[in-house]
Design goal:
The chain is of the alpha+beta class. Helices cover 27% and strands 21% of the residues. The chain contains two helices and three strands. The structure holds zinc ion.
Length: 70
């Protein structure tokens, strides 16, 4: 009954996909990996800040495009 939903985000900003892990009794010590090979971590972003800065995601996408060229 005490399942905890945790959102992990891909650290590869060019990918940026998110997965929702349903945490049960098994404690996961290692972060999940994205299909692109990058490690996924729980995003540390204050929700209030994100709401006040709606253009932030657009900037992130532009930067992600640059990262693709690396
Ligand atoms: Zn990824």
């Amino acid at each position: 009954m005490s399942t905890e939903r945790q959102v992990y985000r891909c650290q590869n900003r060019a990918c940026g996909c998110e997965i929702v892990v349903t945490k049960t009794s098994v404690e996961t010590k290692t972060n999940p990996r994205c299909f692109c090979g990058a490690e996924m971590k729980k995003p540390y972003s204050p929700p209030v800040f994100r709401m006040l800065d709606p253009d932030d995601e657009l900037v992130s996408r532009l930067e992600a495009g640059r990262n693709l060229a690396q």
